[in-house]
């Protein structure tokens, strides 16, 4: 099963959610780390944050707000320090490097000023580097200092870095030590922010670019606005990003405005849930054809990015339209292998969506080849582009069910661009900085890897990846919220209680794609209903899914689920089941080809006539061994087992049943049917179509010898109601007739009391009785009387 999150982590999340505060798991974890995992402090500080800051869509203040309780604890600590110790502590609090020699030089102090007094207890000194032992002390130190003291600390650090030739860091502290804007500081701050973004530290890059914007004018201001918005986007702060990039695309600098357009479209979509198609098209229309190739390329990239956003949300029509517009602005010209990674990603998604081309028919597919692999761009690409290409290649490989190769591609990208461990301090970085993935890019890699694992039937691995990443990355943002939907689906498939982390992701992630959320939510509910034995409730929800105008995100990122056709057929919704079977036959044979064969085999078994069953059981048995996913193998073996039981081949049926259970354990999934491992031992009523009439057959093999003493009662139930009640409903009815209470029935059948109540309600409804006494009386009547009471189900 999935490795559980730390207890205190879940407790803090649950505590905050219970108070009505929506908070993202990664924000909660950050608060805990900075506040010593003190629950009271976490609650107090969280209450002082804005809604956007708690949900992780706006930047957190640094340092965090100081609460009265923190001041009460740490004010006396600071009061006990000498003046020089307080000066050293304040410089340590505002410094962005962790070198001890820089700290001492800026404070004009020697090492004895630290180690000979009380300050030694509050600074950790290791290998020439320092750290304030308690982040809460840093926050209180910063809060207590007045403007003059903080300005002096920054000025001292600016002079120190200047003497050491660190002009970019000197510019940062100089900007914070001046009380008036200084436009000469903007260029080095822009360079510093770019270096930070290349190094993957989007949060630091945002702080620097934001400071640059407060000093810059003209072209530097336009660059600062775009850089601040891009950094906020890559940090996951999509509301901040949308605000800054809105200023960028409205600026008078056409080049910078065009360069920020793709990021703006992404930020608005992730923060609001609405792809800003009209704004992007309006911007493109306002740009004259005579503009240079740089602007045309930026607009083409923005149009491709917008197309990809539509494709992620399952909107093939809008995606195709935007791709065509992109080609008209592309100075390179369209080709079979798009240069831009956003174009390659869009085309890969479109290859699996229904075509909007009327010439292809209602169920035509995209005419693009499925294997649209990204081509390398000339020159040096950003880490984001390289990771986007890796994700595109992995998804294409996974859709062809080459899962191992897909995992290799993603793992290689993660090892190279998203190594474990935090970001080094700016003064410790290489010059030039080593390229590294930002939090948003790494979140895309993680969710893509989890999707590949889920598609390949490795539910344990996928759930662990998402749970581990949720406390440090914005995993709700990639792919229209597919990571959140997958986390919920895995809990349903693995029969786990809804975790606090998943709940927090669901409520805190901004603007989850609506249609996909509805469809995936209905499927989740159907799986739970099926497991609880409420087949009609499960089928009703799946029937609603089939009537939705669009599956949205679920079309581009289908998640593992049960068999819709099987559930619909068993619930008697045969027309719906036939429609779903037709959809499977019309689906693209190149998208998850073996999984599609397994779905069709199981569906055809469920829809088989008695004469068709033997041949289809043999065919499904052969297909089961070819399926790469253990979950698909389990589902197919179970369907084969049920068919073989009906054909009175108990030995082979039992072998298929055991294989099904072993494959379920391998995948980490739980049994989808409410009955347990021995569900075939008491027989099963199976509905079949024969000459257009519903008939019922009851499998009698492998009955428990202990049931013989009640053979009379069971025979009455089965003889009278085989056509009307499901197997589980007959079992419940038989035990109730013998005088068992609901709790005793639940214990005998190894199910929940609530499940018994649901089944008994179905029995009452189908037989027309109103009480347990009437049920017992009706069971004792001759079969003809029973048929008159409940009606002939064959008509």
TrEMBL record:
Name of protein: HTH luxR-type domain-containing protein
BP terms from Gene Ontology: regulation of DNA-templated transcription
Gene3D superfamilies, A to Z: Winged helix-like DNA-binding domain superfamily/Winged helix DNA-binding domain
Annotated source species: Orlajensenia flava
Keywords, alphabetical: DNA-binding
Keyword DNA-binding tagged: yes
Positions of the HTH luxR-type domain: 718-783
InterPro entries, sorted: Sig_transdc_resp-reg_C-effctor (IPR016032), Tscrpt_reg_LuxR_C (IPR000792), WalR-like (IPR039420), WH-like_DNA-bd_sf (IPR036388)
Molecular functions per Gene Ontology: DNA binding
């Amino acid at each position: 099963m999935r490795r559980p999150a730390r207890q205190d982590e879940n407790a803090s999340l649950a505590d905050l959610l219970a108070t009505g505060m929506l908070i993202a798991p990664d924000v909660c974890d950050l608060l805990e780390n900075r506040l010593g995992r003190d629950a009271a402090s976490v609650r107090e500080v969280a209450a002082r944050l804005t809604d956007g800051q708690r949900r992780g869509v706006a930047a957190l203040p640094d340092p965090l707000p100081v609460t009265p309780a923190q001041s009460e604890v740490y004010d006396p600590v600071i009061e006990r320090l000498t003046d020089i110790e307080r000066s050293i502590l304040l410089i340590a609090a505002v410094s962005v490097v962790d070198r001890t020699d820089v700290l001492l030089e800026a404070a004009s102090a020697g090492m004895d000023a630290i180690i000979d007094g009380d300050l030694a207890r509050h600074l950790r000194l290791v290998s020439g580097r320092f750290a304030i032992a308690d982040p809460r002390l840093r926050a209180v130190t910063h809060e207590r200092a007045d403007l003059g003291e903080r300005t002096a600390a920054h000025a001292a650090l600016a002079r120190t870095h200047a003497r050491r030739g660190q002009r970019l860091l000197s510019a940062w502290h100089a900007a914070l030590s001046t009380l008036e804007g200084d436009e000469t500081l903007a260029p080095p701050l822009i360079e510093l922010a770019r270096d930070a973004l290349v190094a993957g530290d989007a949060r630091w890059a945002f702080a620097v670019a934001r400071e640059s914007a407060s000093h810059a004018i003209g072209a530097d201001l336009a660059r600062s606005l775009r850089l601040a918005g891009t950094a906020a986007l890559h940090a996951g702060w999509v509301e901040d990003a949308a605000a800054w990039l809105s200023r960028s695309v409205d600026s008078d600098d056409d080049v910078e405005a065009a360069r920020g357009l793709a990021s703006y479209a992404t930020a608005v979509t992730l923060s609001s849930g609405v792809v800003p198609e009209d704004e992007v098209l309006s911007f493109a229309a306002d740009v004259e054809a005579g503009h240079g190739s740089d602007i045309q390329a930026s607009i083409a990239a923005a149009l491709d990015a917008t197309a990809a956003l539509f494709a992620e949300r399952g909107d093939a029509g809008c995606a195709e339209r935007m791709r065509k517009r992109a080609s008209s602005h592309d100075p390179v010209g369209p080709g079979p292998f798009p240069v831009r990674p956003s174009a390659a990603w869009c085309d890969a998604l479109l290859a699996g969506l229904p075509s909007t081309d009327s010439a292809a028919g209602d169920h035509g597919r995209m005419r693009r080849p499925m294997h649209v692999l990204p081509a390398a761009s000339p020159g040096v690409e950003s880490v984001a582009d390289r990771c986007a290409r890796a994700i595109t290649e992995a998804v294409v490989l996974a859709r062809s069910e080459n899962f191992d190769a897909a995992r290799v591609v993603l793992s290689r990208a993660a090892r190279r661009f998203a190594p474990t461990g935090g970001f080094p301090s700016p003064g410790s970085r290489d010059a030039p900085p080593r390229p590294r993935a930002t939090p948003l890019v790494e979140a895309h890699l993680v969710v893509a890897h989890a999707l590949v694992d889920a598609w390949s039937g490795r539910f344990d691995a996928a759930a662990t990846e998402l749970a581990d990443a949720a406390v440090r990355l914005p995993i709700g943002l990639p792919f229209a919220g597919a990571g959140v939907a997958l986390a919920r689906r895995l809990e349903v498939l693995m029969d786990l209680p809804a975790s606090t982390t998943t709940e927090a992701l669901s409520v805190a992630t901004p603007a989850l794609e609506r249609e996909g959320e509805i469809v995936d939510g209905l499927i989740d509910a159907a799986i739970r209903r099926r497991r609880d034995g409420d087949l009609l409730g499960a089928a009703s929800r799946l029937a609603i899914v089939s009537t939705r105008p669009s599956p949205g995100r679920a079309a581009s990122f289908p998640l593992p689920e049960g068999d819709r056709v099987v559930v619909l057929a068993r619930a008697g919704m045969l027309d719906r089941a036939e429609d779903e079977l037709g959809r499977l036959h019309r689906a693209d044979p190149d998208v998850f080809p073996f999984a599609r064969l397994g779905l069709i085999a199981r569906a055809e078994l469920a829809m088989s006539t008695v004469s068709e069953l033997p041949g289809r059981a043999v065919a499904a048995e052969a297909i089961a061994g070819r399926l790469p996913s253990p979950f698909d193998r389990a589902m197919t073996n179970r369907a084969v087992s049920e068919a073989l039981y009906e054909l009175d081949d108990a030995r082979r049926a039992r072998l298929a049943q055991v294989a099904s259970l072993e494959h379920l354990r391998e995948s980490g999934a739980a049994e989808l049917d409410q009955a347990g491992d021995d569900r075939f031992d008491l027989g099963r009523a199976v509905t079949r179509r024969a000459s257009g009439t519903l008939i019922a057959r009851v499998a009698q093999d492998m009955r428990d010898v202990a049931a013989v003493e009640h053979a009379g009662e069971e025979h009455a139930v089965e003889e009278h109601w085989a056509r009307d009640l499901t197997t589980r409903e007959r079992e419940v009815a038989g035990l109730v007739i013998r005088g068992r209470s609901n709790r005793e029935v639940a214990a005998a059948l190894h199910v929940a009391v609530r499940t018994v109540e649901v089944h008994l309600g179905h029995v009452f409804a189908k037989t027309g009785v109103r009480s347990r006494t009437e049920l017992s009386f009706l069971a004792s009547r001759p079969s003809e009387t029973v048929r008159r009471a409940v009606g002939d189900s064959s008509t």
